[in-house]
Amino acid sequence: MAPKPHRVVLDRVSGYADEAAAYMRRRRVSRRPFARLYYPSGRSSDHADDSTAGAELFVAAGRLIEVAGKRAKPSPS
Amino acid sequence: MIHEARARGTVGIFTQMADAATPEVAPGDAAQAALAFLTEMSPDLRGAAILDSSGAVLAAAADSERWEEDAAVLFAAADRAGGEPAEQVHVATEQGEVFALRHDGLAAVAVTERFALASLTFFDLRATLRELASSAAEG
Fold first, then answer.
1. Interchain CB distance below 8 Å, A53 and B92
2. pTM of whole model > 0.80?
């Protein structure tokens, strides 16, 4: 027996949501720290954390993250 | 340690901004309002600061002095890395992400949660600076 039409739509939407969730999960797992610079000319450059420039950028970024602190979680209302 | 950047003269890097020729400094109140608006509309934002062309903080989430020093260190490191003044800086770490942008003679630095969308964050920062610069020019 053919499934009801609304179930087909529901299954399809659920499938897309599952795909998106899996993509975000893979992105979280596989993404490594990076430092990227963009210039007015449109050029951009990546700097690995084991390079001199990259290390300096990561140290500077770490200090800023420390200053910013953690974002306060919104209180449940 | 804290004043290393100042001692090395890195605060001056703000004067090397690509488009630093635009009119001076937005008023502090306008910058505070812009920062409050930015914080409100960006759920991933942990903290941010807006700086003028000399590197002085116009508005900051908390400790202005530290934001000023650390932003100067970041821009100095970015400029050294590429041999020319960088317009945008994006550093993603395990602890969070840092975005820095120079625009219209102003600069903004923001710290967000991990995996914040870079294009949106830069768009918001750029819009904020553009608005501040135009209001300063009008005023």
1. no
2. no
